[in-house]
Specification:
Layout lengths: L3 H113 L1 H20 L27 H5 L4
Helix pairs in contact: 1-2
């Protein structure tokens, strides 16, 4: 039969093992707390990184919208240029044909006039020379241009980039 002393020795041995287990549990608990702290720091860093990515994506989207506005302005200007160029070419063709016909008619009329009125032709040449001198001194007023440029609506300034995205994206440094 076991004696009281044997029972006491077993209790002391069990208590020593419980103390060892308690120490091991304390070590494991400390390690788990360290891992938990690391996980929380990593979670915070990841959340900050995603917040920065969200800010940068918003900025990128606003820049793309600005570029779309710029492209709309460019297309508007190019359309105006194309329309005006086409109108000018059409008008130039008409004017060239009219000028050629008028040149021929004027030459014919000038010859007929000079043959019919030689004294008046001499006077006309003298008046033309006098007009050239007057216009050299005092040129006539230029007519108002028929075409006035109308600018297209341009976008305002581009969006401002977000601040401190680089330093906030990497908090461990």
């Amino acid at each position: 039969m076991a004696t009281l002393n044997d029972a006491y020795n077993q209790l002391v041995a069990a208590n020593a093992q419980l103390t060892t287990i308690h120490g091991d549990l304390q070590t494991v608990n400390t390690s788990v707390e360290g891992v938990n702290t690391s996980v929380q720091a990593t979670t915070t860093a990841v959340e900050n990184g995603f917040a920065q990515l969200d800010t940068l994506v918003g900025y990128t989207n606003s820049l793309l919208a600005y570029e779309v506005q710029q492209n709309d302005t460019i297309i508007c200007n190019l359309t105006k240029i194309a329309q005006q160029t086409c109108a000018l070419v059409n008008q130039a063709v008409l004017q060239t044909a009219a000028q050629q016909a008028m040149r021929e008619d004027l030459e014919d009329l000038k010859q007929l006039f000079e043959l019919a009125n030689p004294a008046a032709a001499v006077e006309q040449h003298r008046l033309e020379a006098l007009n050239r001198k007057i216009e050299k001194c005092c040129p006539p007023k230029l007519p108002t241009p028929p075409c006035v440029y109308e600018p297209c609506t341009a976008p305002q300034k581009p969006p401002t980039p977000p601040r401190n995205t680089q330093s906030q994206a990497n908090p461990t440094k």
